[in-house]
């Protein structure tokens, strides 16, 4: 198993994610979040807080 690195910086509803692959970002609230990873994948996630239930949908790349 190799080494990995991940750091997340939060400012209100915005989050910057730093990793070995690059920089990603996400924005949202406790129940809904839009994310874009360092390799360009886009995802919408909806959660029901306190239940552990979530729904995730990958969006097409541009």
Short description:
Pfam families: DUF4236. Residues 3-56 form the DUF4236 domain. By secondary structure, this protein is mostly beta strands.
Distance between the termini: 32 Å
N-to-C SSE string, H for helix and E for strand: EEEEEE
CA-based shape: globular
Number of helices: 0
What structural category characterises the helix and strand content?
Answer: mainly beta
Contiguous runs where pLDDT drops below 50 for at least 5 residues: none
Overall helicity: under 10%
Describe this structure in words.
The protein is mainly beta. The chain has strands at 6-11, 14-19, 22-28, 32-36, 42-48, 53-59. The protein is built from no helices and six strands. Strands 1-2-3-4-5-6 form a six-stranded antiparallel sheet, with no helix packed on it. The termini are far apart. Helix content is 0%, strand content 61%. The chain is globular. Residues 3-56 form the DUF4236 domain. This is DUF4236 domain-containing protein. It comes from Actinomadura fibrosa.
């Amino acid at each position: 198993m190799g080494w990995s690195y991940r750091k997340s910086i939060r400012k209100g509803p915005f989050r910057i994610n730093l990793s070995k692959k690059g920089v990603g970002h996400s924005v949202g609230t406790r129940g809904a979040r839009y994310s874009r990873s360092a390799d360009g994948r886009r995802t919408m996630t909806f959660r029901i807080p306190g239940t552990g239930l979530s729904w995730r949908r990958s969006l097409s790349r541009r």
